[in-house]
Amino acid sequence: KMSALQSAITNEIKERIEKIKSEFSEYIIEDSFEYVPYETGKLSESAHIDNKGNIIYDEPYAEEVYNSDRQYDTDKHNKATGHWVEKAYKDKADKWQQKLKDLILK
User: Fold this and answer.
1) Is 24 a residue whose pLDDT tops 80?
2) Closest Cα partner for 97 from 89, 85, 86, 88?
3) What is the C-alpha separation between 65 and 40, in angstroms, rounded?
4) CA 59 from centre of chain
5) Burial 10-48 (b: 16+ CB within 10 A, else e)
6) DSSP assigned state of 67
7) The predicted structure's pLDDT at residue 52
8) Is 82 helix (H, G, I), strand (E, B) or coil?
9) CA-based Rg of the chain, rounded to a whole angstrom?
10) What percent of the chain has pLDDT over 90?
11) CA angle at residue 86 from 31 to 20, to 5 degrees?
12) Distant-in-sequence, close-in-space partners of 47: CB < 8 Å, separation ≥ 6
């Protein structure tokens, strides 16, 4: 059985992890923006963080576009592509890892 102190520490750690996850997810949305296919802007504008810290693109067609391998118009978002988070990470892995480290150590 956990003591009150152990319970308080556990809860504080959980809260800190959730805060880091949420802040990092927000960072990923911002840093992936130019990779999200853009026609009307609704898809990229629909991005938000759910109550578990997951990134959600909340348009009915979001999953289909995300999983597509087709070529997208790059007039508005010059790196527009399917699987945009993975593609952004591939280009920016060092930067994202540093950001996560900074969030953990702050």
Assistant:
1) yes
2) 89
3) 14
4) 16
5) eeeeeeeeeeebbbbbebbbebbbbbbbbeeeebbeebe
6) T
7) 81
8) coil
9) 17
10) 92
11) 55
12) 29, 36, 55, 56, 57, 58
Strand partners, 47: 57
> Alpha carbon of 88 to those of 24, 51, 84: distances in Å?
14, 23, 6
Across 16-40, average pLDDT: 95
Give me the helices (H) in 46-83, please: 62-66
Task: Look up residue 95 and give its two tokens.
Answer: 């930067």
Q: What is the rounded end-to-end Cα distance, in angstroms, of the chain?
A: 31
Mean pLDDT of 21-48: 96
φ/ψ of 79, rounded to 5, equals: -120, 20
Task: Output DSSP code: residue 74.
Answer: -
Q: Which residue has the tokens 């990470």?
A: 89
Taking the C-alpha atoms of residue 88 and residue 79, their distance in angstroms, rounded to an integer, is 9
Q: What is the mean pLDDT of residues 21-31?
A: 96
Token look-up 């007039």 returns: 75
Specify the pTM. Answer: 0.88
